[in-house]
């Protein structure tokens, strides 16, 4: 089990029965992990226990009832799901104290019940890997795939290493098993997340694991290679521009994984990057971006930056604006620096006054909006695959390969009411603003 924060609420989990039931379990576990819960194998001390039951034959019914009894005795707060859950009365007769019962394939309800009966993990924009909206249930057609916990860096504005410890990579076989089950359960897009995706496997010296009876190295490139065999969209988040990232760009150019990189760069002034204790150098980042685009012209680059970090002068800020003008990133998030309790940056001299932070934030956003808008304008008249997220009586809303859910823009398909959530269709882009696109299905 990974070294998750000790303050995270804990969920005891027991899964019984056939592989189909395992798919449900996997989905529930994926969601719990993404939401910030810690899954534990013992009942004692857990905030809640989930028993995923089997009711196929009498033996399985007995085994499930015993598991529920054991969880009630050792913990007391138990929710039941799975095949036996379809026979609620049978469970209630033996175990009236069970909090909630749901049948098979009802992971949404299970997660709702978890949110009701267990304390909610605290949402902190500085430590959470998914947007605040991610706490609401992820729709069935996409899923976050968490590949590691913790981080080996010590960025001065961040408290993750002190909360979650050093990098702790999940075994590659278990990550790929989870991904495969998610794909089999109908997931069409996997969003790979961790604090530092490009560092995957560093802590275990890129040990060779096994998957499908084959040796597979624990590193980002091998992970991407294997994920590409699942026939679903694979999107990479939180990738640092280390040299080996160059090796995933050809996979993007070949269409194996989405041509999308989320690289949190945070600043462009060497002095500020040093004060932040960030890896990498700006010139090399620009060169690298140029090379990546030569290899994969379709590449979408998303990044986040902090303005108003302690010691940031007008000159440092101008470097950041120059970097934006040159890098022409597609999607950019910007935060005004604010101290996080326990972060070492709090002790730095020359804190930037709030009004200057505010002013710089607006200057930054204004420039980036022009760049993003131009990049979207360039898409008008072209055709792209779009995954459908929502359909109502007015039309459908989807995302192109360049748009991650919740954080990037969307593609509006007015009048396209016959599409279904999770469909991937070819769309001709007809219009654009600073964030979103409009188009219709290419027929
Ligand atoms: S890379 Fe830096 S910002 Fe990201 S989790 Fe690690 S310490 Fe925090």
From TrEMBL:
<dbReference type="InterPro" id="IPR007197">
    <property type="entry name" value="rSAM"/>
</dbReference>
<dbReference type="InterPro" id="IPR002792">
    <property type="entry name" value="TRAM_dom"/>
</dbReference>
<dbReference type="GO" id="GO:0005840">
    <property type="term" value="C:ribosome"/>
</dbReference>
<keyword id="KW-0689">Ribosomal protein</keyword>
<keyword id="KW-0687">Ribonucleoprotein</keyword>
<protein>
    <recommendedName>
        <fullName>Ribosomal protein uS12 methylthiotransferase RimO</fullName>
        <ecNumber>2.8.4.4</ecNumber>
    </recommendedName>
</protein>
<dbReference type="InterPro" id="IPR023404">
    <property type="entry name" value="rSAM_horseshoe"/>
</dbReference>
<dbReference type="InterPro" id="IPR006638">
    <property type="entry name" value="Elp3/MiaA/NifB-like_rSAM"/>
</dbReference>
<feature type="binding site">
    <location>
        <position position="83"/>
    </location>
    <ligand>
        <name>[4Fe-4S] cluster 1</name>
    </ligand>
</feature>
<dbReference type="InterPro" id="IPR005839">
    <property type="entry name" value="Methylthiotransferase"/>
</dbReference>
<keyword id="KW-0479">Metal-binding</keyword>
<comment type="function">
    <text>Catalyzes the methylthiolation of an aspartic acid residue of ribosomal protein uS12.</text>
</comment>
<keyword id="KW-0949">S-adenosyl-L-methionine</keyword>
<keyword id="KW-0808">Transferase</keyword>
<feature type="binding site">
    <location>
        <position position="158"/>
    </location>
    <ligand>
        <name>[4Fe-4S] cluster 2</name>
    </ligand>
</feature>
<dbReference type="Pfam" id="PF18693">
    <property type="entry name" value="TRAM_2"/>
</dbReference>
<feature type="domain" description="Radical SAM core">
    <location>
        <begin position="137"/>
        <end position="374"/>
    </location>
</feature>
<dbReference type="InterPro" id="IPR058240">
    <property type="entry name" value="rSAM_sf"/>
</dbReference>
<feature type="binding site">
    <location>
        <position position="18"/>
    </location>
    <ligand>
        <name>[4Fe-4S] cluster 1</name>
    </ligand>
</feature>
<comment type="similarity">
    <text>Belongs to the methylthiotransferase family. RimO subfamily.</text>
</comment>
<feature type="binding site">
    <location>
        <position position="155"/>
    </location>
    <ligand>
        <name>[4Fe-4S] cluster 2</name>
    </ligand>
</feature>
<dbReference type="Pfam" id="PF00919">
    <property type="entry name" value="UPF0004"/>
</dbReference>
<dbReference type="GO" id="GO:0046872">
    <property type="term" value="F:metal ion binding"/>
</dbReference>
<feature type="binding site">
    <location>
        <position position="151"/>
    </location>
    <ligand>
        <name>[4Fe-4S] cluster 2</name>
    </ligand>
</feature>
<dbReference type="GO" id="GO:0051539">
    <property type="term" value="F:4 iron, 4 sulfur cluster binding"/>
</dbReference>
<dbReference type="InterPro" id="IPR038135">
    <property type="entry name" value="Methylthiotransferase_N_sf"/>
</dbReference>
<dbReference type="InterPro" id="IPR005840">
    <property type="entry name" value="Ribosomal_uS12_MeSTrfase_RimO"/>
</dbReference>
<keyword id="KW-0963">Cytoplasm</keyword>
<dbReference type="InterPro" id="IPR012340">
    <property type="entry name" value="NA-bd_OB-fold"/>
</dbReference>
<dbReference type="GO" id="GO:0006400">
    <property type="term" value="P:tRNA modification"/>
</dbReference>
<dbReference type="InterPro" id="IPR013848">
    <property type="entry name" value="Methylthiotransferase_N"/>
</dbReference>
<feature type="binding site">
    <location>
        <position position="54"/>
    </location>
    <ligand>
        <name>[4Fe-4S] cluster 1</name>
    </ligand>
</feature>
<keyword id="KW-0411">Iron-sulfur</keyword>
<keyword id="KW-0408">Iron</keyword>
<feature type="domain" description="MTTase N-terminal">
    <location>
        <begin position="9"/>
        <end position="119"/>
    </location>
</feature>
<dbReference type="GO" id="GO:0103039">
    <property type="term" value="F:protein methylthiotransferase activity"/>
</dbReference>
<dbReference type="Pfam" id="PF04055">
    <property type="entry name" value="Radical_SAM"/>
</dbReference>
<dbReference type="GO" id="GO:0035599">
    <property type="term" value="F:aspartic acid methylthiotransferase activity"/>
</dbReference>
<dbReference type="InterPro" id="IPR020612">
    <property type="entry name" value="Methylthiotransferase_CS"/>
</dbReference>
<feature type="domain" description="TRAM">
    <location>
        <begin position="377"/>
        <end position="443"/>
    </location>
</feature>
<keyword id="KW-0004">4Fe-4S</keyword>
<dbReference type="GO" id="GO:0005829">
    <property type="term" value="C:cytosol"/>
</dbReference>
